[in-house]
Amino acid sequence: MRSDVLRRIASTSLLVLAGGISVFAQTGKLNLNVTPKQAYIFVDDKAISEASKHHSLTLSAGEHKVELVNYGYQPVTRTVAIEAGKTTGLSVSLEAVAGKVSGPFGAVTVEGANRDAVLLNGETPDLFVGHGDEFNQDWWWRQELVVPPGTYQLTIQGGDKDVWSGEVNVPANQRVVVNASKGVRKTVPWTRGHGSGVIDPRSNSGIACFHTFVAIRAT
Description:
Strand content: over 45%
Largest sheet: 6 strands, mixed
Shape: elongated
Strand order of the largest sheet: 16-15-9-12-19-18
Helix content: 10-25%
Structural class: mainly beta
Radius of gyration: 22 Å
Number of helices: 1
């Protein structure tokens, strides 16, 4: 009886090990070296995360479409061939887009989106403006999406699913709070939108974690 049990355990262990080897044999790794590190990764039209969080991805063997995007930069699309059990390298530097955006401005705060992709006026990677953790607070270190006044179709995307999508009207000198599960929650005064200042399409300024992102795609 005991020998039968031991044989069953050994057989099960071998099956698990074989399964693990089989899965490994069907996948490979993609090592990424991306500049700037804030660039966001889409693989086969699925939102993954920013490049700084994923230096290596495990992908099924075969060809994959890899898109690297960052607002204020030219998007880059590459087709990579992944070989089972092997590592493929991909090094990309995104090219900044020249230009300025004039005020007045409004702002959008995005709650509960973590590192899900935020897109404006469409759902393709080239319309990416940042991820949720870059737009989630308006106190101390201000992280917000700054836009010219207008109406935007805002989409929060995780993987290949829309977490939330809807119309957001952003008045001048106002801040619209959008929750990833509840949609638009409120609109409140936003004093930093006064005047007609000129800002880079994407700018980081001040101390660490103070970010300003400017989108210019109002509909």
